[in-house]
Amino acid sequence: MDDGTGTVFLNTCGNNRDQISPELAGFLDFVHADLEKSQEKSNDPYIAQLQDSIKEIKVSREMGVRYVLFTEKLEEEYRDGYEAGEKSGLEKGEKFGLEKGEKRARISIIQSVLSEKGSLNPQLEGHLEKASIHTLDTWLRFAFEAENCEMFLHKIGK
Predict the structure, then answer these.
(1) Sequence-distant (≥ 6) Cβ neighbours of residue 38 within 8 angstroms
(2) Which residues contact 125 (CB under 8 A, 6 or more apart)?
(3) pLDDT tens for residues 65-112?
(4) Do the beta carbons of residue 42 and residue 48 sit within 8 Å?
(5) How far apart are CA 15 and CA 155, in angstroms?
(6) CA–CA separation, 121 vs 155, rounded Å?
(7) pLDDT category, 63, cuts 50, 70, 90?
(8) Nearest-5° angle of CA 20, CA 24, CA 25?
(9) 3-class SS at 33?
(10) What is the pTM of this model?
(11) Which of 8, 6, 7, 50 is nearest to 27 (CA)?
(12) 51 Cβ partners below 8 Å, 6+ apart?
């Protein structure tokens, strides 16, 4: 920013304590501490002030209401995000399932048509599975036109 402010990143797990002030080191320890340790009495006036403020916030009815509202809002946002993700996933799954079903139907019809024209070539299954729906549509027409399986394979270039 052009207003003379800057950004400082602090790491509570840093290992260069000799390069920072004891006050900053104490603050980093406070931030990193678990609940029990963070509630221990501190000799540092700033940490003591933070601890007092935290205690006041915890017993404040107004802050309690704000906390509950904030928690509810977070849960609502989570639910909305989850539902949106679930809906998107279902839509993608349905589309994939429909495409797979359409492909399976075309393959089945081609196999059925060709089985009436002679024995099916074992390689045919692999070719059919790898083909796109568009290609299968073309091959379906070839299956009806072909007099036998060999002519079909020749027509599709296999």
Answers:
(1) 30, 51
(2) 111
(3) 888 898 899 899 989 888 888 888 888 888 888 889 999 999 999 999
(4) yes
(5) 72
(6) 14
(7) confident
(8) 75
(9) coil
(10) 0.46
(11) 50
(12) 38, 39, 42
pLDDT at 1: 58
Report d(CA 123, CA 154) in Å as an integer: 13
Residue 40 DSSP label? S
Coil/strand/helix, residue 118: coil
What's the rounded mean pLDDT across residues 121-134? 86
Q: Give the integer Cα–Cα distance in Å for 148 and 30.
A: 82
Q: What percent of the chain has a predicted confidence (pLDDT) above 90?
A: 18
Contact by Cβ (8 Å): 122, 91: no
Can you list the alpha helix ranges (DSSP code H) found in 22-132? Answer: 22-32, 35-38, 45-59, 61-115, 122-130
Give the distance between the most distant pair of CA atoms in the chain. 95
**Distance of alpha carbon 12 from the chain centroid:** 29
